[in-house]
Amino acid sequence: MAQVMQDLKIVTQPIKTTNVTGGGGGVAYANVVTQRSDDPNLIVAASPATTVRLAQGQFSRFTERDVRWLGAVAADFGLVAVKADAPWKTMQELVAAWKADPSKIAVGGGSAVGGQDHMKVLLLGRAVGLEPRSIKYVPFDGGGQALTSLLGGFIQVFAGDASELRAQVEAGTVRVLGMMSPRRLPAPYANVPTLKELGYNVEWVVWRGFYVPKNMPAEAYEFWLRALRQVERSPEWARIREQNSLGQFFMAGAEFQVFIDRQVNQFRNLSRELGIIR
């Protein structure tokens, strides 16, 4: 998105992008809250991975109210996939095998135990009638590692996002059995049914958005809000979304803050229901 902002001349100076690793985003979050709480030039990428961890108290003493939420500009969608040569041709076949012997089906994802990929698996397990404790989830440090393990035969099922698998789907190395999107996606996923179509009440929308320091000056916050709106309306951003199998999803300002508050509360309740937190 930084490049789109520069191409549209929303910003006139180069935007520096820094990847702060550690704690599933917790290190970056703590740094913003404690070290850069009024920085006018800082925006930080976020997704449901952020709100899941906030809901579970994974960011130490910090909460969703310790930053200011800016907006979301796109959405990815969860999916369930297997190797192209796996014995299961449909979601129903996989579910039948999974229910028959959960210990034989290792499901991998690119998040830690309790993270959003794990939550996807637990939600699907609940929808098909499996006990959470019977589900064999293997956590990896990112979707790339999980995909490598799937292709290597170390796990049987991959739980991830549409944007992660596009190249593999087009190459024919994986088979996507179900989408966690509200409706079917365009190619290369056009022929993949949603889980709801198949009778499993599971959706996982991976919004892609940003937060900023809580004490960012008002004029700076308004500048970044306008910037997001310009990006979202641009054909350049539409092309990037299409190239990455991202859907249209825009929300900003106060509306997005309310959305975040509700989602954190929903994830907290869901995490308790699934036995992730007490």
UniProtKB/TrEMBL annotation:
InterPro entries: BUG, Bug_dom1
Domain of life: Bacteria
Similarity comment: Belongs to the UPF0065 (bug) family.
Protein name, per record: Tripartite tricarboxylate transporter substrate binding protein
